[in-house]
Amino acid sequence: MNRLTICAAVATIFASAVPGVAQISLTGAGATFPEPIYTKWFQEYRKVRSDVQINYQGIGSGGGIRGVTEGTVDFGASDGPMSDEQLKAFHDKRGFGVLHFPTVLGAVVPVYNIAGVSAELDFTPEALSGIFLGKITKWDDPAIAKANPKVKLPSADIIVVHRSDASGTTYVWCDYLSKVSDEWKTRVGKSTAVNWPVGLGGSKNEGVAGQVKQSTNSIGYVELIYAMQNKMTFGRVRNSSGTFLKADLASVTAAAAGVEMPDDFRVSITNASGKSAYPIASFTWLLIPEQIEDKQKLAVITGFLKWMLGPGQKLTSALEYAPLPKPVVAKEEKAIAKVHGK
Amino acid sequence: MLSPRRKIVNALMLSLTGVCTVFIVGVLFIILGYLFWNGARYLSIDFFTKLPVPIGESGGGMANAIVGSGKLLLLATLIGVPFGFLGGVYLAEFGTGPFPSMVRYMTDLLNGVPSIVIGIFAYSVLVRPMHHFSTLAGGLALGVMMVPIALRTTEEFLRGVPQSLREGAMALGASKARTIATVVIPAAFKGILSGMLLDLARVAGETAPLLFTSLGNNFWSSGWDKPTAALPVMIYQYATSPYDDWHRQAWAAGFVLLALVLAVNVVARLVLARASHAA
Amino acid sequence: MSSAPITLSRSRSIAARFRAGDEFAYTLTLVCAASIFLVTCLLVYQLWIGANLSRHQFGWDFIFTSTWDPAREIYGAVPFMFGTVVTATVALFISVPIGLGAAIFLSEMALPSISDTLTFLIELLAAVPSVIYGLLGIFLLVPVLEKTVVPLLKSTLGFLPIFSGAFYGVSLFSASIVLSIMIVPFIISVSREVLLAVPVDQREAALSLGATKWETTSQVVVPYAKRGIYGSIFLALARALGETMAVTMVVGNVPKVQASLLAPGDSIASVIANQFTEATSDLYVSALIELGLVLFAITIIINGLARLLILTTGAKVAK
Predict the structure, then answer these.
(1) Which CATH class is domain C78-317?
(2) What is the per-residue pLDDT across B219-265, written as a single tens digit (0 to 9) for each?
(3) Using CB atoms, which residue from B54, B74, B132 is nearest to A72?
(4) Which of B147, C109, C114, C180 has its CB 3.0 to 4.6 Å from that of C95, i.e. a possible disulfide?
């Protein structure tokens, strides 16, 4: 066999490394928050349509918004809804709008690593905002100690850990802190990335979790599932009714229950009212362009959305995501029709 | 006569240089050993044949990342080597005057550009207009990174060929082009080749430019216009995760990547060694 | 008759030259060299227009502002310029003495076979991917620093402001150490080459005058090879300034200028890597691209200084 044949063979192998059925490939990118459930869903969906490959990369909510706006990905995903400016920018760039589809509910929890403390701590809104503002600097500060009379907190400096990259998880955390602390609202604000008053940065949920695990007497915030997967100790947070709640499926769904859902599905459920509502919860959304030129991709996306609202919702609890409340599902099913071809 | 002080200083400083060397070599062995211990242990057939699985599930592998890296490096070589090589020939054989000096200066600047900026460049030039992430964009970014070192290596080794060889050929009636092609380049060939291999090895480990160009892929990537997984990117994603299984895979991937790079280096050295024996 | 030397190619007709392939070779290689030139210009141009929004918004204030606030859309390059320059400088402080020492050992002291083998091994350090350096930084270096090195440092030199404050593992110091290991192979490899190229008679002359080996090396050989050694340092510096992955994993990612090396910081390459794909607003992206432009400018300045140094010290680079 001469060299040319070998080269041709190698080239062919490289160029077509996929066996079997011709694949329709879609690429989505965005939030890391729902990455576990999305990758699970896209894998499961291949059982429904074996010719569809949906590649999802968790590069962060901001990346998802930018990607779908610039059209470098087929759909985006974000933990925070797009702002009015971002919606306008999308419309200006593409000539049509973008739709938000809530997929699951998640929660953000305070994780900590304190020497000698293995109990679940109770955090008041004042404690959390004070710590992250840098005003509460020691673990045995009365603001923290008062809510935890039975725990022996060390007189050690608090090491704050936050996200170094822009993310929807940060958005949810800051959205909550803005609602419970005027000083946070004016001094820092809410966004996918903020100018943190104090703390070390970790890249993505993984980075924050890792940094907290590695630094004694530290506190950070991660999405619920990462805390559970990593068996991290996380605290309870006091909600607007005065109850200290631990994040779990029930308390998260309770947060979504009392909310009036607008037509465009962009709503914040942090610090929700309700006795059993966990205060730092959020929807997470898929960002779908209103107009999809490619007929095959349009069929895949609308088909997937329908599946996601049906069988998909049944897979959420196993991965610690709260499913959507039924009225929201019904409303979304009607909204799928808004996605059209050219 | 030699004063005791000078003797002591002499002995002291010379042994310090030895200490420096031992220190550096020691660091290298720690790195290699750590990788071997943590990575080689967890290598399995799965690693080389399976696709990644969702977080939390076990049994996945990095087969697509290995192939992806292969495709990206193939493309990088096809772009970087010809331009670097021929540019180096230009500078070495035709290179006097303001323009060649400018090219040399620009190439040095390009060499200093951080890989992340090259990634941004490839994003604006390929990803945004094409409206998708792709292997092509990743290969282009890596290829651009290869050019400066390929060019420098070629120029240096060509310059190292004695002028007498060129003059001898021309005296025999060969044209300049023929001289270069049949006399000068072959004389410098082994050195150039080893330089190219080292260049390729360095680029194989680059992550930053791939983040904005080839993105990543959980599946096989066919053709050249789709996002693709790559070893360095997978290492980065897995290593910064809290999942133990992913950590193990990251070390294994690191070991595999390093083994490949070492293999390339060894080949380059052997080739060079044989060349200098033949010379 | 003519005073200029007549080359074979010039004495032929154009057709003959073309047939011989000279013009073809010249054109082909020229095109390649020109493409490289053009691509670099295109790169700078892309950076320039990408940074437009940010430049018009902030003007020169960009390189004087120390706030990096994406929520309020205020961007300033100072903390990152600081982190980049500091980590690169400290890395040089660590790697140059050690690298030069090792290069001297390998060129002056070691037997040729040992020298070759060891150099081969050391050059392998340059081939280790950046990501792996970051990994090893997190898993190996940071714990060692936390448990052994930094307490030692603080107990002896803790009064210095650069070693003050708490140490959380990730810091400018950790990033500098990782960088120094990454760049030392360049210094060793190139310096060793130029030291070996110093003519033997230089050494013999010094020795015959009664100098010790060390005196010969430090006062004759090394100064002779000065230019090449400087070259190796600038090569290493260029890599250190642009190094991304390894730095971002151990630097702490805090955009603040602080006096202590033990504090977390950030560098230009690191922040671009962390925030580029996640930046949403156009101004945010533009500010990050402008950071890339700033880094490019820093590199040009360093290159310029290198050339100036080589020019002003007169003699040609020892090869």
Answers:
(1) mainly alpha
(2) 888 889 889 999 988 887 777 665 677 777 888 888 888 787 777 77
(3) B132
(4) C180
